[in-house]
Amino acid sequence: MSAQPFSRSLALVLLLVGLLFASTLIAGCSPSPAANQPAKTQPEPQPTSPPATPLLTQPPVETAPPKLPPSLEEFKFALLQAIMDQDTAELSGYMTSPFFTGGWRADASDTSPEDALVYLYTDYLGADNRLEWVEGVDLPALMGGLDPLSMPRPEAGVVEAALVTGWGLDGRDEAILFISRLPDGSYKWHGWIVIKGGFSGARFGGIQPYTNEANGYSFFIPKGYEIVETDPSNVMILAPGQGHPGEGRAAAFVYVKPANGQAVEQIVEQFIADIGPGFELGPGTALGLDKALAIVLGGLPGQDSNRQLFSVYNDLLYNIHFVPDNPKVGDPYWQMEDLYAMIVNTFHFTKTEAAAEPVAKAVNNFYTSYDSCMKNPPAGSEGKVGEYCQNNTGLTTAAFAGNLEAGGAAKAGVDPVFCGQDIPETMSVNTDMQITADKAIASVLEKFGTTQINIQVDLVKENGVWKIDNIICPLP
């Protein structure tokens, strides 16, 4: 046997042994699969960092706010539909923040849209309200010359005050809805003013005006109601029909007579006392009647159960009786409710000029005297000109100086009479004022360049002469 074949076989064996040894070393350097896996009882760990490559292949979609209808008429249509549908999600996108709410001849304030929606569907609207816009209505005429656009804050940008009928849980009320225009030209709902019982007459076919020149008042009543004026101080209004006023058909009786210096609270207190202890009455309901306070008593005894309104203005007592105040009689009661709402919501005092003239004269005389004194201080007033001029006109009450000091205008750094740091360029007394037998509240408009302010002047009648008792400045 030769040596060459044996050498080749030995070399092959050594090569195989070497390869086997190398593979064993490599396997020993790598962790075993079992060692890399957690125990079967443990959850699989999740990656905490985002993958290097985004999983989304398209950009995310952002949620856009509701698109507002482009025109005013389209917005009004969509708004009314959303209100009736009780679509609070849609309405939230239509509403301004803050949101203005209130009642006619009652308080009004700003609230959040969220709270307003809760009030809307809790206190004002039911599930079946059918709302309609009232077209062609003259709101300033119904509101005694007040422009409804002046009710919200100027910065709210309100451009429309639209009347809607069908408001209220029973659908008998109306509401003025305020609509604002945003800087981009779109529209939003800014708020409402509720008119209990309404005042446009849209629900019952229209209205008609009545004016009493002799006693200085006016109001609207439902169309078709009869007015019987025995004399200017005794007026009867009858609902349509042939029956007796009361259980047969509704009626109102308007009586006017001197108040003889009494306030309305005193008159009502005496009226309740005169009824006697056998009939218990509450204090009544207070409400605003144009420029005056009114107190209403309901369920009063008489030939027919009646409701009475008492109000004192310019030392005249306005006493209005409404019959029948009894829901059990049916239709005549609802006629009475309509008549009551129309008169109360549209009642306005018209005869103010004659009563206001002596009050305005007293205010003008005082300011003329004060202005002259401040511009030409008399000798001996050095160092105390303002105080001297306030107290030496002969046109103020003994309490005037103390009332001015209590008002705090001087402490705020302004003249407590002019309510500014300078003498106004012009001044004018508003003849629309509150006047009783011995007290009056007047308003004075002052202009300082482009700035205008209204100040309140309180007067008291002493020995038949009106005197200035206080001046209330609009302090910040």
Short description:
The chain has about 475 residues and is α+β, with helices and mostly antiparallel strands. Helices cover about 30% and strands about 30% of the residues.
Which sequence of strands runs across the widest sheet? 9-10-11-15-14-13-12
CATH level 3 topology of the largest domain: Protein Transport Mog1p, Chain A
Question: What share of the residues does DSSP label as strand, in percent?
Answer: 25-35%
Mean pLDDT metric: 85
Assembly classification: single chain
| Total E-strand runs | 20
Taking the sheet with the most strands, its summary is: 7 strands, antiparallel
User: Could you give me the name of the CATH homologous superfamily of the largest domain?
Assistant: Mog1/PsbP, alpha/beta/alpha sandwich
Per CATH, the class of the largest domain reads Alpha Beta
Parts with pLDDT < 50 across at least 5 consecutive residues: 1-17, 19-64
User: Number of helical runs?
Assistant: 11
| CATH architecture title of the largest domain | 3-Layer(aba) Sandwich
- The helix content, as a percent range, equals 25-40%
What structural class should be given to the helix and strand makeup?
A: alpha+beta
Quickly count the domains.
3
Give the end-to-end Cα distance, rounded to a whole number of Å.
128 Å
Rough shape? globular
**Rg estimate, integer Å:** 40 Å
